[in-house]
Batch of 3 targets.
Target 1
Amino acid sequence: MITLFTLEIRYEQDVVQSRQRTRELAEQLGFETQDQVRLATAVSEMVRNAFQYAGGGTVEYYVEGTPQAFLVRIQDKGKGIPHLEDVLDGRYTSSTGMGVGITGTRRLMDIFEIDSLPDQGTTVVVGKTLSKRAPTLTDSQLQQIRKAVMARSPQNPYDEIQRQNQELLRAMAELRKREEELSQLNRELEDTNRGVVALYAELDEKASSLQQVNELKTRFLSNMSHEFRTPLNSVLSLSRMLLARMDGDLTVEQEKQVTFIQKAANGLSELVNDLLDLAKVEAGKTEVRPSAFEVSDLFGTLRGMLRPLLAEGASVALVFEEPDGLSTLYTDEGKVSQILRNFISNALKFTEQGEVRVSALQTDRTVTLSVSDTGIGITPEDQERIFEDFVQIESHLQKQVKGTGLGLPLSRKLAELLGGSVSARSQLGQGSTFAVTLPIAYPHVTELPELSQPIASLKAMHLPILAVEDHTETLLIYEKHLQASKYQLIAARTLDDARQALQQLRPAAIILDILLDGQSGWTFLQELKSDETTCAIPVIVITVIDNEKQALALGADGFIIKPVERWSLLNKLNTLISQGKPQKLLLIDDDPAYRYVVKQLLISTPLQILEAANGREGLAMAESEQPAAILLDLEMPEINGFEVLDQLKHTAITQSIPVIIHSSTQLDAEAQSSLAAQSIAIVSKETTAQAATMAQLRDALIQAGLILDEENCYA
């Protein structure tokens, strides 16, 4: 710390002198004029307080710190400030105005410290940091500043007052100038605002006009399409009648002419249908009718529908890849089919040889249906134009195949209507791929179909699993995962739904999402674990965020990051629900050799294998041992497997035991349907490969609720 100057405050003129010295030192230290005035004003205010309330004191000017700061310490030996906290908070006022100077000084300074003790006095330190752009002052430079200031004699107090008045006038002039600039800026802003308002009004008017034009166009297309359909249908019907010779033979020329008429009418009918569909979509009158369906069933329908488009002996193959492991879709099947028909028919039109391949790929919450071909391809500059209305790309095949130019634009609009999108990739001369990406469940669905089963309709042999999840597609995935297992899904899309379900039943486990719409899954988890009636129910937190530690700390029994695999979910449920229970598997089979084979296949699992050599023995052991699951053969003497299964399901003590049919019996459709309704799975003995047999048994055992080692679950 380098002390620059010390001043004793004994008389009133010393207050004026403190102001002078502060300004002089601030000037020597390189502060700008405004900061000089701020420092001088703040110091004189604090010195005046010391003189007025304490009868005097000392003022010490010094420089210290890194970066350097100009500091002034004002110290007195008065009675102190009794209400300092109230003064600093601006809550205290008095007839003398005490406190106004302190709060004002604190606002003016970069550094402000005050310490006041009753009957011991008050110390105030104020200051400002030197400019960062200025070089650091050395000790010798500070000593020179000290000598220069001390060499100056104090000015006349009246001169100081005059200078203070001049500073005030300059400040007022500066404020007046800024006020005029602000007024000018406000006038300019008002002019700009008027222009913006006028521009918006013009845009609104044009938008309204365009909307009216668009509505007129849509209405015209819709009305025109309807008006065209009647005569077109008549033309097509009459041409078919003529070509069928219903009113006599036609000459060769007449047949050729009627054929031309029929082709033209078919083309016009296709155009009218596309125009009508497009008009409906643009007018917002297309109704989405979501339903649950399998992609494999959709592909099968399209395969039969589009095969006639392939000419006999054609060099183009239409290949549908078998979709594997896809979730059930819940969207408008008719519109998805229409999109794919457009893609496939275009691919067949513009592919001379090779293949057109249809495939499907699922991500977490979407499915992408793709149509790839080995056709002529599309240039990069045309790949966006093909989605414009009536646009058809010129090629040597375009003259041979006729179209409306509306199929792809309509497909894109239908995909957007279903909450999805359409994309295209192509390379000239090598082929194209058109794809539609759709959410697994239509996003605007209001109810979950056939998912939230009424509590009263719970199946006796199935354990209820309460899933608290607000995404419809995720619930559909859970429903798919739990199919053909010992579990039954109870869906709750809100916490209120979950609480209501818990009042009606006790689920075997709860699947809980944390990121619920507008609700906290963490709060519900704490609520479950703090309630005596629900604290023992296993809770699996399944979410997209990796916060396993927090979930387990709040009482969760398991944690899985989305997307969740079927076997991972089933094995986690089995582990939590069946932990501590004996893992007994009862084999009911009259063939000792086959019982031995099964035991060898399951030797590395933690299962306790029980054996029954016939149906009667198996029923007795099922009642006495209460196994976790039963592996049942159908062909046995005395009591066959069908009779055993029937007795198991009609006996109270055994009806909830999961049964896996393990037999070589050839079953017709009716028998398979009947057995599927009463058992968890049907596994054939005919599989010769040990790995395949083990995989089938593994899947069936996990579906039945048994806990297997991790290596057996995912081998």
Target 2
Amino acid sequence: MDRNTLIGLVLIGAILLGFSWFSRPSAEEIARAEQEARAAQLAQEEASSAERATALPLQPAEASPSTDSIAQDQLPLYRQRRDEQIIELKNDRIHLSLSTHGARPIEAILPAYLNNATAEGEERPPVRLFSREDIFLNLPLRTFDNQLINTSEVQFELMEQTDSTVLMRLPLTESSHLDFRYTLLPDDYRVRFQISGAHLDKILPANMSVQDIEWQQRLPQLEQSWKFEGQYSSIYYYYPTGEVDDLSTSSQSQESVKESVKWFAFKDKYFSSVLINNSSRFTDSSLEIKVEPEGSGYVRNCWMRSTFAFGPRATQQQDFTFFFGPNDYDLLRSYDEGVEESERLQLDHLVYLGINIFRVINRWLIIPVVTFLQQYIGSWGIIILLLTIFIKLLLSPFTYKGYLSQAKMRVLRPQVEEINARYPGKDQETMLKKQRETMALYSSAGASPMSGCLPMLLQMPFLIALYMYFPTSILLRGESFLWAEDLSTYDPVISWSFDIPLVSSLLGNHISLFCLLMTIVNIVYNRYMMNQSASSSEAMPGMKWMPYMMSIMFFFMFNQNASGLSYYYFISTLITILQYFFFRFTINEQKLLSQLEENKKKPRKKSKFMQRLEEAQRLQQQQAAQRARGKR
């Protein structure tokens, strides 16, 4: 290599070095680029977390990603591989399985209850509220350097284990860790859940005051009727002010709750999973519920995301309680016994008893009577029979007055027919005269067509209250009577496996025997009563079909509902028929007619109702006369 070539290479190298030196980024540009890279990584992690949290349906939790190409000692402590361990906490009421992967519950079995959704002829297993693939629990921790740690993705260490308690720890740095402690209460469905840590200020931001929590659970189908199980399934939440609210379950619902909340419940028809914040309140919550397809083995998919008070202080600890158990009214009410009113949980609202007057009837009358009868009687069929007799006796004074009014109308029927014969025309003026004379007859005799409606009006709140009670009371679940194997669901006497257009969506694929008997008895009773009543069908011919249409409509409504409910209405109608014939043969109609004739002789002041009716008739006659003159 000659001298000129060597000088040229040196100059070229110097030029390249100089260009690299002068074109390098400044310290500010390097910092800004690193900040943009961290922001992009943060957005990607948040999007991944949100997608993972809101994914419907849930996917099974996977093991931590492989790190074979990276030495374990080069990974953060919370990323290092550990073997998953499964821990079981058991008592007589619940078997709860926990995993160190995510330090979360992965299975809850209630051995005292059986799964009613199994196919006919198959052995029914115990109720499983959720399996590993059905539940998701996560605390997304944000470190001071904007790293995201999802507790659902990392392995905790098993630190302590007893028959009722387990402590799992997530090492974060050499001196800091996060602890999840679960404690199963004796002879209970509740599990204490404590979150605490040590030296969290080494990894969490110093100004951190709240922590997000994500919880999701698919509700498996546990009853025969997917339709009616889903109808009573929802997300419930409780405001500290005492109000319990829930989401609609028609298809898919989302809701943001800005107010503070004491607990959230993923509620099935007869069972619930509840997360209660004992230390503070949940705030800034997002909820979502989705209907699962029929035949999928699930009824609803529930998801919530909220925040609770938590920070890196050394003494920071948050106490929660999980409830995995039945919607048993007495059990849920017992959790508020001896508790100050401001601290009561009102979990009994997970049992739907109706609103306003209907809930009052169920809470203060039906449930106490049922509780009393249960102490002495083991058959729910007999309990429902005695409950029906009790309600009928309670209303019997009003029922008697109603039947007495019907008897008055019946003995006056010949005189009403005489009035109809004197006014055979169908024109408006003739009909008004006929109506006026008929009402004058009733008024002078002391009879009222409206009095017969009183027993029906008084019975309606009880009928509606029991319509709310029977399908939601877990006490009927698994209880058999006569041919009904389970009074909490339908009792098929005829079943088919194929779909009938329109019919299958209303009836299902069966006909329930108690529902069928209820419908037949109602039709027979209504037909008999129509024949016994005054001939009002002449004035309103279409009304004579109304009772039959109502009976058929109720058949379609109740065919897939609880057989205990149909059984109640069936025997209630039978008792009503017996009451009718009892009063019919104990009331002396000849003596009653004589009394009514005597009433005609007495001066009788017109009631306000009759005065308004006569005034309305007078105005109608005037209008009819004016229209007639106008036509001339």
Target 3
Amino acid sequence: MDISADTFKEEACDLLEELETALLELEETPEDMDLVGRVFRAMHTIKGSGAMFGFDAASAFTHHVESAFDLVRDGKVAVSKPLINLTLTARDHISTLLDLDGPADDGLLAQGDALIKKLREMMPDAGENGTGQDASPLGEPNDARDIPAVVTFRIWFKPFAHLLSTGNNPRLLLDELRELGQCSVVAHTGDIPDLESLDPRSCYLLWDILLTTDKGENAIKDVFIFVEDDCELVLEPVYDDRKDEAEHKPPPSDVRAPLTEQEQIKQQLRQKKEKAAAASLRVPVDKLNQLVALVGELVTVQARLSRHAAGHKHPELVSIAEDVEMLSSDLRDNAMSLRMLEIGSTFSTFRRLVRDLSDEQGKAIELTTSGGETELDKTVIEQLKDPLVHIIRNSIDHGIEAPGIRKEQGKPPAGSIHLSAEHSGANVLIRIKDDGRGIDPEIIREKAVQKELILPGDDLTPKQILQLVFAPGFSTAAQVTDLSGRGVGMDVVKRKIANLNGEVALESVKGKGTTLTLKLPLTLAIIDGLLVTLADNYFILPLSSVEECVELSMSEQNKNRKKNRQILNIRGDMVPYIRLRDEYGITRDEPELQQVVVMRVNGGRTGFVVDNVIGSHQTVIKNIGNAFRQARDISGATILGDGRVALILDVNKVLEV
């Protein structure tokens, strides 16, 4: 497959997402013809471009679905839930056809034929060809209203300056208009600059067009369907051969006079806010990853240069090192921003999931979102989808009650699930909140005792009881269903989020609902870390979780050892601490005065005792390979300026160990 076909498949994925979003919105507001237009345009583009790049099966199938929605546009078919269901299934079938590496097999073609047959059955009074294109509106017999009206339209067409650079040619669009009927075109050249200032890649013309046709307004809009976001377009009917004749309005010849009056045209032109002509370029993910890797190497070299300059104390060399540090920092931020995507596109994919599962379970559930503009690294977003799917499925199955039960409890019949995202320092907080039955601590305790996770007499706080939900194999489902009850549950979610260096927090109120909060880093490639030492070993702690550093003397440590405790009093706040020397069996060269790095971990404060705190460090994360696969509390490594290796600690895993 050539590059153009690969590019089309990427664009087709975006179009299919747009199609699904528009269909789900159309189900809620079936009278919105703008949404019908969005559905039609998405399918029209897939059909036309698919045929161009050799996806004949997808193009042919999409044509039938497009024809059905052409009748919806003309008001001959009403939007209904069965039609939306069938079109969503057709959308999935189109996606399957586009993913094929070769021709469609007989099974897929049969599935497509079955869907087309169901579509035809929904079309009113389909003609012999079964397309329904000769049909009249539902409930209305054929009469004079079905005779095509000859209408004269006035069209104002002003391309944005960048339209030519998108590969579109206005002349071809005008030729298409001429095929629709009698067409008179006047080009206005007042905006063309002097030759010295003229950019041959820019379009400066404005066309005022008078078109008399019996093809209808939708046929005209279809001509401009590929450039509607790259131009100002105003379409006004000025003469109807039936309506205007009855009202004794002037014939088309009398409305052509304004075509030569450029100033009048400019005054009558409807001003639209011109969209920013920001050029975009599709780049393979592998190339972006390679760029980020090279930037990471540059950051490492920059650290070596800064260390060398500091050691020699040469003013000019120090100045150069500082300039390189600033440039590498800016380059790092820009390179990382290339991989940042808005999470809203991921949120929108769950609307279909909620719709289908709520219908399957006979529940009414509304999905709402906020903070969709929040950006996350593409790698993080890709690995986040599965945990979010599991959490939402749990909310639908375990959380949201049936409509009858909700009414008895004084709740609205329709439940709600809210997805939100927001920045919090170097992290992003994603919350999944439902207004369902919540979690009953007593049921959790009973299940935990049955599974021997706790003893019957264990005294646990409400927060500790909720944490039992994350135990491997834990489930409160009474029976196994397609959604839950198989013991593969929240422990998988927690593990996957931990693999992203994130945290999971659970809050629930019985009868009110449940909220899950995922705390995730913005990126997994380069982080700001705190460089510390243990003897002659270097370690990196995530700087985003560090709250403060305090001193800890050997005498105070000895006092705590005698009392068999490891707690530090910091301004009246009792903070437990962990001696990393003990964790890693380091006994030599222990200093008299050590440092405690106080970090926020799993919602609480914990101190990590180290020998020395060197300072912040731009950390390029490197995989540590299979040799360290058993070291669960080490998430990676980085190379320091002098060539030494520093291990990156996963503080969550340190606490578990």
